[in-house]
Give the backbone structure.
Amino acid sequence: MKLHGLAWARAQGRTLIKTWNETNNRPMLAINEQLGFVKQPAWINYVKTLREGEGEDGSKV
């Protein structure tokens, strides 16, 4: 599927493709490295719960 997506993007004249992976998913990282993707600095998400018992989307937890 990833090869198909790369071929489609190339045919459309795209010059940049990005992908995201879990840092501990070594098999997928290896595939991306073989395809020529270059590692970038990690992206870190922070979540702060403002009210105890309330989820990120406002739902009760």
